[in-house]
Amino acid sequence: MESDPNTFDFYTTDPVQHAYSFITDSLKYPHADTRQIAKKALEISNKCLEAWLLLAQSYQKFPQARTTYLKGIEVAREQDTTSTLLQLLYGLGELYYRHGHPESAIETILELLPLDESDPCNAREILTLSYLQQEDFIKAHACATHSSYDDSLSSRVAQAYIAFRTEIPWWTPDQMDQLDDELLGRTTWQWMHEQCNSLKRLYRQINHANPFFAAFMLNPHAQSIETPTTIESKHASEALHVTKLHHDLWHNQELPIKLLEEFPWTNPTKSQIKAADKPILLETIQQLEKHRDAQRSAAEKDYLQNRDLY
Asked: Which UniProt keywords apply (predicted)?
């Protein structure tokens, strides 16, 4: 009996296509278990790249993710599928970076970039961060200023960090106040501010690119805020995403935070804030208030201890 071409027939359908259709149909449900869907799709066909990608992403915080990405990459190479191979390599590189293996992250991303010089996955972001993690500022700067990445918010943050680490000495503002030397007739503190001018310009560019960035950067608990599924350019979702990637580079640096505090930021008006941005901004405000209250409580405790009244 011949099959009707207008109906879905499991026995005459390519298993890979059937597995892909299964994923597409299953993900329509709002509370779908992506890991179980991916596993069932792989039971239909272990050549379904979308299933390998979905499974690896569901394992992102677990050791199984590395093995899953490597298996998916192997299948993608067999099928010569560049678009999915790019996503799998990017996911593996990001996984290595997040788990503190910058050498492996660099090796993976350098394997990815020749596949598409336009870098659709924005993999140079992970590459730049990995170089910074190794304190290889020359390669990090070359990567951050690449034409396909230079205009992004993440690149500007990286360039600002590089400027801070390479152009400004390891002195805190408190140490500056204690120094009596003068350089060419100027106090050291005045010289320090002049050195910061280029860095301030970078901060101004960052703020114009995304006015929400400073709020997240100043939040010491930004890492615990859940990133939205959809990341929109020049809105709070992008600012939170960039902050999370760069937070480990910045959170111990006192001078950039002080520059952020003293710089005249232009905040968006209520009418300019999108509805999708409001939950993330509300959460960061609540966390900043908790952090402020905790600091006040600690300060009061220290004061009472010093007065021998505690």
From this structure: TPR repeat
- Give the per-residue SS3 of the chain: CCCCCCCCCHHHCCHHHHHHHHHHHHCCCCCCCHHHHHHHHHHHCCCCHHHHHHHHHHCCCCCHHHHHHHHHHHHHHHHCCHHHHHHHHHHHHHHHHHCCCHHHHHHHHHHHHHHCCCCCCCCHHHHHHHHHHCCCHHHHHHHHCCCCCCCCHHHHHHHHHHHHHHHCCCCCHHHHHHCCCEECCEEHHHHHHHHCHHHHHHHHHHHHHCCCHHHHHCCCCHHHCCCCCCCCCCCHHHHHHHHHHHHHHHCCCHHHHHHHHHCCCCCCCHHHCCCCCHHHHHHHHHHHHHHHHHHHHHHHHHHHHHCCCC
Q: What is the predicted pLDDT for the residue at 267?
A: 64
CA distance 213 to 153: 9
Residues 227 and 283: beta-carbon distance below 8 Å: no
- Model confidence over 230-265: pLDDT tens digits? 788 778 888 898 888 888 888 777 767 666 666 666
Q: Report the phi/psi class of residue 27: left, alpha or beta, with left for phi > 0 and alpha for psi in -120 to 50.
A: alpha
Do 57 and 91 contact (CB within 8 A), yes or no? yes
**253 and 168 in contact (C-beta within 8 Å)?**
no
Domain definitions of the chain by residue range? 151-291
Residue 121 C-beta-side C-alpha neighbours within 13 Å? 24
Comparing C-alpha atoms, which of 218, 240, 225 is closest to residue 283? 225
Question: What's the rounded Cα separation, in Å, for the pair 241 and 168?
Answer: 27
